[in-house]
Amino acid sequence: MHDRRFGGSRTSSVVRILNLMALGGERQEMPKKEKAGKPAESRKGKAVKAAKSDKAKTAASQEAKSPKPKKAKAAKPKAAKVLKRKGPKTPPPAENLEKEQLLSSEVAFEGRLFRVLRDRVIEPGGRENLRDIVRHNGSVVILAVDTSKNRKNPWIVIERQYRHAAQRFLWELPAGKLEPGEDPLAGAKRELEEETGYHARKWKLLVEYYPSPGFMGESMKVFVAEGLVAGNSHPEEDERIEFRLVKLSEVLKMIEKGAILDGKTLTSVLLYARLRAAKGKK
Description:
Blueprint: H1 4-29, H2 40-65, E1 101-110, E2 115-123, E3 127-135, E4 139-146, E5 155-163, E6 168-172, E7 175-177, H3 184-196, E8 199-209, E9 220-229, E10 242-247, H4 248-257, H5 263-281
Parallel strand pairs: 4-9
Antiparallel strand pairs: 1-2, 2-3, 4-5, 4-7, 5-6, 5-10, 8-9
Helix pairs in contact: 4-5
C-alpha cells in the first residue's frame, strides 16, 4: 500500500525534475549563436584588393629601381625656305634706251660759265615739248680726306665763301667747272690745288650725279682725295675762299644742325660716311 501523504508530492517533484531535464537538454541541443560575419563575397573582394595592392607595390618598387628612360628631345621644326624675290633688273645703259628726237635748237643766252638753249624735241613716249636747257661742261667735287692723325675720324677740307645766287655765305667742299674737253680727274687735281694748295697721292671716284636735271645738263663727279700734301693756293681773281680742316664727325654735326646747305657737300659727305660705316661692320 502506498502512503498517500507522500504520493502527491513525490509525483509533482518527479515531474518537475523531468521538465527541468527536458529543458536542460533543449538548451544543450540549441546551437550557440555565431557572430554575424561578412559575406563570403566581401571577403573574396578584400583578398583581391590585397593582391592588387601587393602587385602595385611590387611594380612601383621595380619602376623605382629601373632607370627612367630619357625623354626624347622634340625635333625642332625646320624653318621654311624663304624664296628670295629677284629684284628689278638693272636698267639698260642710257645709249640703249629710246632716244629723243631733236626738232630744233637755238641759243637763248650765252654767258661766261654756261649757255641756255631752247630746244624743241619729241621725247621718249612720242610727246613734243619745248625745253629751255642750261648747258654746262660739267663740274668736279673734291672730298679731300686727311687720315694721318685719326683714321676712324679723319679730317675733311671744307671751304667758306659768299654765293650771290644764295645771297649768303656757304660751307662747301672744294669744287669747280671743267674746261671744254678736260679730263675730270685732271680737273679735280687742278681745282684742289687752286683753291686749297693741297696735292693728293691717292684719288678715287666716289659718285657722279645730276644736281638739277629738270633744266640743267650739268653733271658732277665727286672724287675722294687721300694722302694730302700741303702747298700754296692760287684761287681765281673773283674767288674769296676761306678753308679749314674739320673732323668728319664735326662735319656731320654741322649737317644735322643745318649749318651746311650746299647740295654737293651734303651728297658727298653723307655718302662717304655711310660707305665708311658699312665697311667698318664687315
